[in-house]
Amino acid sequence: MKKCVVLSGAGISADSGLLTFRDAGGLWEGYRVTDVCTPEALAKNPQLVIDFYNQRRRQANEAEPNAAHYALVELAGYYRVQIITQNVDNLHERAGSKNVLHLHGELNKLRSVDNPDEIIDFTGEQTAETVSSGGGAMRPHIVFFGEQVPMFDTAAEEMRDADVVVIVGTSLQVYPAASLVHYAPPHADVYLVDPNPQSVAADIEVIRKRAAEGVPDLVEYLIGKA
Fold first, then answer.
1. Which residue, 89, 82, 81, 91, is CA-closest to 107?
2. Please, is 224 exposed, middle or buried when counting C-beta atoms within 10 Å of its C-beta (0-12, 13-18, 19+)?
3. Burial, 35: exposed, middle or buried (Cβ in 10 Å; 0-12, 13-18, 19+)?
4. 109 near 60, Cβ under 8 Å?
5. 133 CB burial (10 A radius; 0-12, 13-18, 19+)
6. Which residues are bridge partners to 112 per DSSP?
7. Is residue 211 located within the same domain as residue 164?
């Protein structure tokens, strides 16, 4: 069975009604990136950061997977599908995808400030008093701007033996995630689902549609080739 690696970004979640900083020109409901999504912001005003991610968690958990998410589940019946997502929601998992690697963390988890290896599932409302098993403070399990992406090397290894690469909902402008496509082997077929693609390499086939429309069409095509 051939392997298909899917690189997903904000555009696939946008079709479920979830917006991003990029969609809002650097503002998200009045918040600047530097106010709520940096290590400095967490140190300066932890409750503001916590409140922001409580709101994001509520919105994400109220959203529903869309046709693109479900199409990728169908694809897994014909290919070994590995999803590498920049998104912090769990819409891929809720649709039924099993192999999902989150590059930028997950809204429904918290991480100990003192021990980064202590990560817990969390779907409620965090407060500044939410503590780890060792009594230390907990923070959103999110890779903030300016922080290292700990899962990048794992993602790069997953890409190295891909037969097919599907890029959906990402502009390939955010690094290091944007560089992952360069780890695909030369024989891999690469597809980009994007209604308004930026400059794209000649060897990438472009489907000029939104995720919820373009991914099901591409999946139907790929299944026919399986």
1. 89
2. exposed
3. middle
4. no
5. exposed
6. 138
7. yes
Per the residue annotation, which of 69, 92, 102, 104 is the catalytic one?
104
| Residue 187 is among the residues annotated as catalytic for this protein | no
Q: Which residues pair with 194 in a beta bridge?
A: none
* Domain containing residue 138: 19-62+109-142
- 121 and 192 share one domain: no
Domain total in the chain: 2
Digitized pLDDT (tens) for each residue of the chain, 226 residues in all: 999 999 999 999 999 999 765 555 555 667 788 899 999 999 999 999 999 999 999 999 999 999 999 999 999 999 999 999 999 999 999 999 999 999 999 999 999 988 888 999 999 999 877 776 667 789 999 999 899 999 999 999 999 999 999 999 987 766 676 789 999 999 999 999 999 888 777 789 999 999 999 999 999 999 999 8
CATH of the domain at 134: 3.30.1600.10
190: domain CATH number? 3.40.50.1220
Residue that the structure tokens 């930026």 belong to:
198
Identify the helix (H) or strand (E) that includes residue 159: helix 152-159
